[in-house]
UniProtKB/TrEMBL annotation:
<dbReference type="GO" id="GO:0006508">
    <property type="term" value="P:proteolysis"/>
</dbReference>
<protein>
    <submittedName>
        <fullName>Proteasome lid subunit RPN8/RPN11, contains Jab1/MPN metalloenzyme (JAMM) motif</fullName>
    </submittedName>
</protein>
<keyword id="KW-0862">Zinc</keyword>
<keyword id="KW-0479">Metal-binding</keyword>
<keyword id="KW-0647">Proteasome</keyword>
<dbReference type="Pfam" id="PF14464">
    <property type="entry name" value="Prok-JAB"/>
</dbReference>
<dbReference type="InterPro" id="IPR051929">
    <property type="entry name" value="VirAsm_ModProt"/>
</dbReference>
<dbReference type="GO" id="GO:0000502">
    <property type="term" value="C:proteasome complex"/>
</dbReference>
<dbReference type="GO" id="GO:0008270">
    <property type="term" value="F:zinc ion binding"/>
</dbReference>
<feature type="domain" description="JAB1/MPN/MOV34 metalloenzyme">
    <location>
        <begin position="11"/>
        <end position="138"/>
    </location>
</feature>
<dbReference type="InterPro" id="IPR000555">
    <property type="entry name" value="JAMM/MPN+_dom"/>
</dbReference>
<keyword id="KW-0645">Protease</keyword>
<keyword id="KW-0482">Metalloprotease</keyword>
<keyword id="KW-0378">Hydrolase</keyword>
<dbReference type="InterPro" id="IPR028090">
    <property type="entry name" value="JAB_dom_prok"/>
</dbReference>
<dbReference type="GO" id="GO:0008235">
    <property type="term" value="F:metalloexopeptidase activity"/>
</dbReference>
Amino acid sequence: MVISKIIMEKVITLSKDIYQKVIAEGENNLPYEACGLIAGYHHQVTSFWPLQNQLNSSTRFFVHKQKVIETVKCIENRKEQVLAVFHTHPSTKPVPSPYDLSHHPDDQVGMVIVSYKYSLPQIKWYQIKNKIYKECTIIIN
Ligand SMILES: [Zn+2]
């Protein structure tokens, strides 16, 4: 049963080092939302690109388009792909909001949400298709 579940779900591998950077970035931006891009090859994360949330908001994030384009260019120059858009939920569950789903830029790219609602931060990785989300499995090693 467990094996068939793993085959059906998308499994993402994340190093402990990058995981800790992602969690710290979110923590450093509290009480506001943090955001950024997560890059890698196929299902393996290899780099994290924090972006400054220009809204200073605890419920929304925004980054100028030019800044995003520059960051994507840096990622592509390293022969990596953008795997996910990351943002935090400072005080709500790590579940995509209707706003998150309607503003997700590209269904080829995942959505990573880190929640600080509980004493231990929770990280979730979602695949988005036609504004419907599906959770992926994250392996931290
Ligand atoms: Zn959100």
